[in-house]
């Protein structure tokens, strides 16, 4: 297995970032819409050709896909990109769709069909082998698209919001499928969902306004964030102190209309399970607290209210 290095400057899209993926690791490329995630994947896949970019698979110069002298077209890169649109070939069977990649690599018709059958088994849709692509449901089509992507045996697999077009049930099923298939695969999954990062990734890279805001292992980034977007996504507060950061969970923050503690103003209130999550702007950052809307004073669930915040003593500072 080999890794991926991708650096790109795309001024017209406001992107200037570098992405590094170690061999056999899955990276979650997290960020809001417009942060540059899809641009980075498009550069890596060869679908976007900026003047300043570098794409290398592994350490061999022979696997340089893009630099100031070289640009390798998408079909010649050992990289496969899967998007939220399955883009299956209409008028062809599921089996023919999945066998297309192996055939393009030079396998015989029988060998390509055998490989396709194997991937359809692994993705749980072997019973649909002879169905027409246009007859599939959204979840079925995405499973077939995953089988087709993996059947090409890519060195690097890129997934751009692959679950965004699915309903909640189908997304959960496909996410569980990917969790099993991405083991020991070099992959990047662009997403803005915490669950995708938590269940699928080994490492996390957070993009904000076209730049890499932070990166590290999944556990480190999601439990010890350094950027407000990451903290909000992970459902944590984030305070900057003279000695480092604090990222208390909502359960570690208590709100009151009056009393001691850190002063702040309720910025946003949102439903969360059986409680209400209240986000508070404080001078040093943001805090979140889960409150019971039935038993709590109405002011504690009203944006604009001045409140005080008590943080549990066990919350530790990190740098």
TrEMBL record:
Q: Which SUPFAM superfamilies match?
A: P-loop containing nucleoside triphosphate hydrolases
Record carries keyword Transport: yes
One annotated GO molecular function is: ATP binding
Tell me the domain of life: Bacteria
Instruction: Say yes or no: keyword Cell membrane present.
Output: no
Q: Which UniProt keywords apply?
A: ATP-binding, Nucleotide-binding, Transport
Q: Identify the residues that the record assigns to the ABC transporter domain, covering every copy.
A: 1-234
Q: Name one Pfam family in it.
A: ABC_tran
Q: InterPro entries this protein is in?
A: AAA+_ATPase, ABC_SmlMolc_Importer, ABC_transporter-like_ATP-bd, ABC_transporter-like_CS, P-loop_NTPase
Classification via SMART domains: AAA (SM00382)
> What PANTHER family does the database record attribute to this sequence?
SPERMIDINE/PUTRESCINE IMPORT ATP-BINDING PROTEIN POTA, SPERMIDINE_PUTRESCINE IMPORT ATP-BINDING PROTEIN POTA
Q: What is this protein called?
A: Molybdenum ABC transporter ATP-binding protein
This chain's source organism reads Demequina litorisediminis
Lineage of this protein's species?
Answer: Bacteria, Bacillati, Actinomycetota, Actinomycetes, Micrococcales
């Amino acid at each position: 297995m080999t890794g991926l290095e991708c650096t790109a400057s795309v001024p017209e899209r406001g992107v200037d970032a570098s992405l590094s993926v170690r061999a056999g690791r899955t990276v979650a490329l997290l960020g809001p819409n417009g942060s540059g995630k899809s641009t980075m994947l498009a550069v890596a896949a060869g679908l976007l050709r900026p003047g300043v970019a570098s794409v290398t698979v592994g350490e061999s110069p022979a696997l340089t896909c893009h630099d100031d002298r070289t640009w390798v077209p998408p079909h010649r890169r050992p990289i496969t990109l899967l998007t939220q649109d399955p883009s299956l070939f209409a008028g062809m069977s599921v089996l023919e769709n999945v066998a297309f990649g192996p055939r393009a690599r030079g396998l015989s018709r029988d060998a390509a069909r055998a490989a396709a059958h194997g991937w359809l088994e692994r993705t749980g849709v072997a019973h649909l082998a002879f169905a027409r692509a246009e007859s599939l449901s959204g979840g079925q089509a995405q499973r077939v698209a995953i089988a087709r992507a993996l059947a090409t045996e890519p060195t690097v697999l890129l997934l751009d919001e692959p679950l965004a077009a699915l309903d909640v049930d189908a997304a959960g099923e496909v996410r569980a499928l990917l969790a099993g298939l991405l083991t020991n695969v070099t992959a990047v999954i662009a997403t803005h969902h915490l669950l995708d990062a938590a269940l699928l990734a080994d490492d996390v890279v957070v993009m904000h306004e076209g730049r890499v805001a932070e990166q590290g292992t999944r556990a480190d980034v999601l439990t010890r964030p350094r950027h407000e977007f990451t903290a909000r996504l992970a459902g944590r507060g984030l305070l900057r102190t003279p000695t480092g950061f604090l990222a208390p969970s909502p359960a570690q923050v208590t709100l009151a209309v009056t009393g001691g503690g850190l002063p702040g103003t309720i910025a946003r209130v949102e439903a969360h399970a059986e409680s209400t999550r209240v986000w508070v702007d404080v001078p040093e950052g943001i805090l979140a607290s889960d409150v019971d809307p039935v038993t709590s004073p109405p002011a504690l669930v009203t944006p604009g209210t001045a409140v005080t915040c008590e943080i549990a003593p066990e919350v530790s500072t990190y740098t």
